[in-house]
Amino acid sequence: MTATFRFAPSPNGRLHLGHALSALLNQDMARALGGKVLLRIEDIDTARCTPELVTAMLEDLDWIGFAAEPPHRRQSEHFADYDAALTRLKSMGLVYDAFLTRTEIRQAVALREASGTPWPRDPDGAPLYPGDAALLTADQIEARRRGGEPFAVRLDMSRAVQMAGPSLRWQETGCGPAGETGEVPADPAAWGDVILARKDTPTSYHLSVVIDDALQGVSHVVRGQDLFHATAVHRLLQTLLQLPVPVYHHHRLIADADGRKLSKSAGDTGLADLRAAGWTAADVRARIGLGKSSA
Ligand code: GLU
User: Which DSSP symbol is given to 261?
Assistant: First the structure.
């Protein structure tokens, strides 16, 4: 089987040096294994991911010497695939319609924390979803449904974990933020009832990434350490949907001069700005700690 890698950026801003590391590391690792690298455009947020940003992204990638094997998969063209997976999880009784608004959640968290009890938070620091039944009566939920209020679709995490069994793991060839490597145990419950379809989008990052990695035959997922803990959710969904499991490699993140994580608005590390300032693709490779290209 050909080793298959993918770089999967979300074109909701310009690419920076962190993206360059991800893209080029995928390409270098694919070459080292005699494999291929694909490009997946993660544009499920159709409001923020504009055609102009996609075009600019392709130019930036071309400039740094990233050449993915066509075709490029655009997630916004495959909502039906994600919907089919959601329907399957629904038929397994593992999802529910979630009506709580952000304000309601924020208020519940503030109230509880004001009384001195910390609200549980996910690995990214966001409060776990309380579950509609925690804040609304069955009648109130029904009234919202009848009133046509928008809802998200969430995974019933405790049921899902129960169905998948206790020993979820993945093979990590890079490392997590605390140096986790090798055979890593997955703890999806730390994320609570994750969103599988948003109020404004018929899918979510977690669902579409897992479906696409399977449909594209991805054998190696190479991405930033900021997504290390999300892998637990991906392993859970793969198990529930009986999908193949790639090997994972989470790489270090590139920091700016002040040691902060790069953001899409950080102009000084944006690839387009570096190019305009006279940098070459070789300068980019050197700055992100990659050796000379083998191509
Ligand atoms: N689209 C995600 C991002 O830009 C990356 C997804 C992945 O590599 O799994 O952060």
Answer: B
Backbone angles phi, psi at 67, to 5 degrees: -130, 100
The angle at the Cα of 229, spanning 170 to 252, to the nearest 5 degrees, equals 95
Say if residues 37 and 5 touch (Cβ distance below 8 Å).
yes
C-alpha separations of 129 from 102, 156, 182, 206, 255 in Å: 10, 11, 31, 16, 31
Residues enclosing ligand 1, CB less than 6 A? Answer: 8-10, 42, 209, 223, 227
Amino acid at 225: Q
Is residue 263 scored above 90 in pLDDT? no
**For ligand 1, mutation pick of 12, 227, 248 (most atoms within 8 Å of CB):** 227
Question: Mean pLDDT of all residues in the chain?
Answer: 94
Q: Which helix (H) or strand (E) holds 113?
A: helix 102-114
User: pLDDT digit string (tens) for 210-222?
Assistant: 999 999 999 999 9
Residue ID of nearest Cα to ligand 1 atom 6: 8
CA angle 118, 121, 124 (to 5 degrees): 140
Q: Which residues pair with 6 in a beta bridge?
A: 38, 221
Counting from 1 in the atom list of ligand 1, the atom nearest the Cα of 223 is: 8
